[in-house]
Specification:
Blueprint lengths: L21 E2 L10 E3 L9 E2 L7 E4 L12 E5 L4 E9 L7 E10 L2 E9 L5 E9 L2 E4 L5 E2 L6 E8 L2 E7 L4 E3 L4 E2 L5 H4 L1 E3 L2 E4 L6 E8 L6 E11 L1
Antiparallel strand pairs: 1-19, 2-5, 3-4, 4-19, 5-18, 6-12, 6-19, 7-8, 7-18, 8-9, 9-10, 9-11, 12-13, 13-14, 13-15, 16-17
Length: 230
């Protein structure tokens, strides 16, 4: 029925309550602000019960995997916003990754993650994918050996994405401005011979991403996650 034909009197306003900025993962299941990719948040890979006030994410497929990725993310709601978390992760080798991501789809994302280097160190690495073309930044690798809890932050600042980390001695910014425009509907649209073959439509996300490329049963524990619009 058209709105101008509806007469409602005496009903109080009932706005939808705002989501709290910080999720301490105290509930039995993920809140409605969270989304997952290609599979529901079932206890076999998203566990909120095994460790109180922590979100345990069991690793999934690589970014090109289309069945069982392990991504828990919040939709970006402003051109200036951030997601911050604290993660505990003990990778065994380079096939195990856990961290924070600015994400659009399988082909377009930026990812700051913990992994194990070939020399045995636990390191923070940064990797980007633009239309499936991956760009590593080995010169930005940070030694995180011996750090049990690592703070991670991803920031949308208009056309730029920036990452920060805290190894226990305060926040530091990764010295690289990344292109936020690749995480847009317009960029993700696939044009072949001047005609659209596929449209981008998902919108950008900020999320927690864990990969277990060897299928070894690895997981990461996230203590909290704070989303803010600036």
């Amino acid at each position: 029925m058209p709105a101008d034909e509806v007469t409602v009197t005496g009903l109080p306003a009932h706005p939808w309550p705002a989501e709290p900025a910080t999720d301490h993962f105290d509930a039995a299941e993920l809140g409605p602000c969270w989304s997952t990719l290609r599979r529901p948040a079932t206890p076999d890979w998203v566990d909120l019960r095994v460790r109180p006030s922590h979100l345990r994410i069991h690793g999934g497929q690589s970014p090109v995997g289309r069945q069982t990725p392990s991504l828990v993310a919040r939709r970006v709601g402003a051109t200036h916003c951030s997601l911050e978390t604290v993660v505990e992760f003990d990778p065994v080798d380079h096939r195990q990754l856990a961290g924070i991501t600015a994400y659009y789809n399988t082909l377009n994302w930026h990812h700051l993650y913990l992994t194990r280097a070939d020399d045995g160190r636990t390191v923070l690495e940064l990797l980007s994918s633009d239309s499936g073309r991956r760009t590593p930044y080995p010169e930005l690798t940070v030694d995180a050996t011996g750090v049990a809890r690592v703070g991670l932050r991803a920031v949308f600042d208009g056309p730029a994405v920036r990452f920060c980390y805290d190894l226990g001695d305060g926040w530091r910014q990764v010295p690289m401005d990344l292109d936020a425009t690749i995480l847009s509907d317009e960029h993700a649209a696939l044009i072949i011979d001047g005609e659209p073959a596929a449209w981008g439509f998902t919108g950008a996300f900020l999320g927690l991403w864990v990969q277990d490329l060897g299928g070894d049963g690895v997981y990461a524990d996230f203590d909290l996650a704070t989303y803010r619009e600036h």
